Amino acid sequence: MKKIVFAFMLLANVAIAQPSVFHGVSLSIAHLNEDVKGEYIWSDMREIDFPVIMHKDTLIMKSPYQTKRFVNSKYRRIDSETEEWQSTDEDGEKCWVYLMDYDDATYVRVEYADRAYYVEIQLYD
């Protein structure tokens, strides 16, 4: 049921061009593991409270640490739970944005060449 509601909200967002605002409830930050190529070392998930805004091809994360804006371009559905966008942040740095909708939680993951962010998002009540 959660997946149906979430998919409907994303489709409605595109159809009526209104931003979808989610509640970022936890955050994990990673840096690239220098010993294992392509692997990240993740921090523990920290509870946090900030808005995550999705609008057309734009993702905005307003964490207490910084506000980051990502413009998404090339899209690909990886599997039934994961969507992927090739993106660029406001500094022109290339990255990948993933939306992962699992049965127990929904996450946004942003991966750069040397760091990554993993944010659990929920609908505002």
Q: Could you please describe the fold and organization of this structure?
A:
There is one protein chain. The protein is 12% helix and 58% strand. Strand 5 (67-77) and strand 6 (82-89) form a beta hairpin. It contains one helix and nine strands, in the order H-E-E-E-E-E-E-E-E-E. The longest helix has 15 residues, at 2-16. The protein is mainly beta and 125 residues long. It has an eight-stranded antiparallel beta barrel. It has one domain (2-123). The protein starts with a helix and ends with a strand. The protein has one helix spanning 2-16; strands at residues 20-32, 40-42, 46-55, 58-62, 67-77, 82-89, 94-101, 106-111, 115-123.
Q: What is the strand and helix layout of this fold?
A:
Elements: H1 2-16, E1 20-32, E2 40-42, E3 46-55, E4 58-62, E5 67-77, E6 82-89, E7 94-101, E8 106-111, E9 115-123
Antiparallel strand pairs: 1-2, 1-3, 1-9, 3-4, 4-5, 5-6, 6-7, 7-8, 8-9
Concise summary:
With 125 residues, the protein is mostly beta strands. It contains one helix and nine strands; from the N terminus they run αβββββββββ.
Q: Can you give the helix content as a percent range? A: 10-25%
Oligomer: single chain
The spatial strand order of the largest sheet comes to 1-3-4-5-6-7-8-9
| SSE string | HEEEEEEEEE
Strand tally is 9
Contiguous low-pLDDT stretches (5 residues minimum) are: 11-15
User: How far is the first residue's CA from the last residue's CA?
Assistant: 16 Å
Instruction: Report the portion of residues in β strands.
Output: over 45%
Query: Gyration radius, to the nearest Å?
Result: 14 Å
Number of helical stretches of at least 4 residues = 1
> SS-based structural class?
mainly beta
How many strands, what sense, and barrel or not for the largest sheet?
8 strands, antiparallel, barrel
How confident overall, as mean pLDDT?
A: 86
Form type: globular
Number of domains: 1
